[in-house]
Design a protein that fits this description.
The complex is a heterodimer. Chain A is 31% helix and 23% strand. Chain A has a 6-stranded mixed sheet, with helices on both faces. A 4-stranded antiparallel sheet of chain A has the order 2-1-4-5, covered by helices on one side. Chain A is globular and about 45 Å long. The termini of chain A are close together. By secondary structure, chain B is an all-alpha fold. Chain B has a domain of 200 residues. Chain B has 11 helices and 2 strands. In chain B, helix 1 runs antiparallel to helix 10 and helix 2 packs across helix 8. The chains are: A alpha/beta, B mainly alpha. At the A-B interface, helix 2, strand 6 and helix 3 of A face helix 6 and helix 7 of B.
Chain lengths: 260, 290
């Protein structure tokens, strides 16, 4: 595991979100939120639903224009860039519950993920790697994504993210609505992805999943970071429950688990 | 009897080619942007006047005039997207605004053509006066060129959309705009391309229209209305449906004008449209191209 929490000491972080504010129309959802992700780090974003995790992700990936603050990625200010420019720099965001491209096949979806100039030359190798990670997708390659199960679709989504050969992959609720078996399959493959040195920024309703995957966490409430720590300093079950009061997290997903 | 049948079939082929070219541009824009482009008929008339000017006035052979007109019409399509679509589409009620703005462009184009060319009837010179024997009848080469143009362009477009990366990015924007941006597709570029393609298809339609009937600045509206019927008839978002629907409507129009008289054909076409909408609201060809 990467030594947690001290990546910013000698090298600048890969992603540096500095006092970010953002929202929709007149409603501000994210208020002066700061966080950073070091190269090779995996970071969890915790917090109740509706408190700004998705808005943070959408602002970082350029889908929403920030109303304040600065986002730096890989040494450049990307606060005012559009999503296409940002993804070309190596920051890929897989949104929550995305239906992807439902009337394209699994193969076509994956290839679209790798159409960027940075990814295209290595596309066949990346495809083989994704298929190695999710062998189920090989049998499904000519099937329309709209006809897949939720778990398979999530595998395609993560696969598309990897096809872009990003430096940072943002995953919003990758296990939402999945069975425990599929969750552990996805966890396993994300561990493999991590081992390759890719940085991750993840939000998920399944706290055990998050702590098993990440090095550090930030707790977001009402659009602000109200706590942070390393995986070793993981909050207790009671604290987690307290954090999520008012949220819509299914209690069965936050039952006590072991740290890995 | 055979003569009647031949006359109807030949007329249906020409009409079907015209409507399929016009409607497939509408279908492409509809499925990608979710808007109805009222200026498509205007683009057709602009292209028809272009071909007429280049052939009848400048003296180029008709097919050469058409080939020169194609890129110019594509630019007209791109300008249409830049002026009437891009500034409005992402606003609240954007699709409605775009429909109104394309309607405004259609009127503006008509006015401009009226000022430049006046209201008189114009006709693009015949592509060819030859006929070829098919079975025991003779068919005008022009009709066959019209058919070939429609089939080559539309089937070519279907294949490009299905089998090329470029086509995949158009279908990606159509199916999930947000996700398409996150994989690096630029939707605005796709919209511009789609308008350019639709304009080129309208240019081909203009060649058929302008050689088989007379053109005036206000002549764009009538085929646009029929192309709209084709969209509903064939299933709004598949190009195969558009192709089938266009020739079905063409046949219907040809048969009804032959047997009942020209003034009856729109009545019959819209009557059948109502019946189709009641019986098969998804259109003749179900599902979208995939």
């Amino acid at each position: 595991m990467t030594p947690a929490g001290n990546t910013g000491a000698n090298a600048p972080p890969l992603l540096d979100v500095d006092r970010l504010s953002a929202g929709y129309g007149k409603s501000t959802v994210v208020r002066e939120l700061s966080l950073n992700v070091g190269a090779g780090e995996a970071i969890a974003l915790l917090g109740p639903n509706g408190h700004g995790k998705t808005t943070t992700f959408e602002t970082v990936s350029g889908l929403i224009r920030p109303t304040g603050g600065i986002i730096r990625f890989d040494g450049a200010d990307i606060s005012r860039k559009n999503p296409t420019d940002i993804v070309r720099r190596g920051l890929t965001h897989i949104p929550q519950g995305s239906q992807l491209f439902p009337r394209l096949t699994v193969q076509e979806n994956l290839l679209l993920g790798g159409r960027l100039p940075r990814a295209k030359p290595h596309r066949q190798a990346a495809l083989a790697r994704v298929q190695g990670l999710f062998p189920k997708l090989v049998q499904r390659r000519d099937q329309l994504v709209g006809t897949l199960s939720g778990g398979e679709r999530q595998m395609v989504a993560i696969g598309m993210g990897l096809m872009a050969q990003p430096k940072l992959l943002i995953l919003d609720e990758p296990t939402l609505g999945l069975t425990p078996k599929v969750r552990s399959e996805i966890l396993e493959s994300l561990h493999e992805v991590r081992a390759s040195g890719l940085s991750l920024l993840v939000a998920d309703g399944d706290i055990d999943f998050l702590f098993a995957l990440t090095d550090r966490w930030y707790l977001v409430e009402l659009g602000r970071v109200v706590g942070s720590g390393t995986a070793a300093e993981r909050p207790t079950q009671d604290e987690v429950m307290a954090m999520y009061v008012g949220g819509t997290v299914d209690p069965t997903t936050t039952r006590g688990g072991t740290d890995d | 009897m055979i003569d009647a049948l031949t006359a109807i079939v030949v007329s249906a082929v020409v009409l079907g080619s015209l409507y399929s070219l016009l409607a497939s541009g509408l279908s492409l824009i509809w499925s990608t942007l979710g808007v109805f482009n009222y200026a498509q008929g205007g683009v057709l008339v602009v292209a028809a006047y272009l071909i007429w000017t280049l052939s009848d006035q400048v003296g180029l052979p008709v097919m050469l005039a058409f080939i020169v007109a194609v890129p110019i019409t594509a630019v007209v399509g791109i300008l249409l997207e830049l002026v009437a679509v891009r500034p409005l589409l992402r606003r609240p009620n954007g699709t409605l605004l775009v429909m109104v703005s394309t309607l405004a462009v259609a009127s503006a184009l008509q006015g401009a053509l009226q000022l430049i060319f006046g209201p008189s009837n114009r006709k693009i010179p015949a592509i060819s006066l030859d006929t070829v024997a098919i079975g025991n009848t003779r068919v005008a080469v022009t009709s066959l060129i019209a058919l070939a143009l429609a089939l080559v362009l539309i089937i070519g477009l279907i294949l490009l959309l299905k089998y090329t990366e470029w086509g995949a990015s158009i279908r990606a924007v159509e199916q999930n705009r947000k996700m398409s941006m996150l994989v690096g597709v630029r939707p605005n570029r796709v919209y511009m391309t789609v308008f350019a393609i639709a304009a080129v298809l309208a240019c081909a339609a203009a060649l058929i229209y302008g050689t088989t009937s007379t053109i005036t600045p206000s002549k764009g509206f009538e085929p646009l209305l029929t192309a709209f019927v084709v969209l509903v008839f064939g299933g709004s978002a598949t190009l195969w449906g558009t192709l089938v629907g266009a020739f079905a409507i063409g046949l219907l129009e040809a048969a009804s004008s032959y047997y009942l008289g020209l003034q009856w054909s729109p009545v019959i076409v819209f009557l059948v449209l109502v019946v189709v909408m009641l019986v098969r609201p998804e259109g003749l060809v179900k599902g979208r191209s995939n």
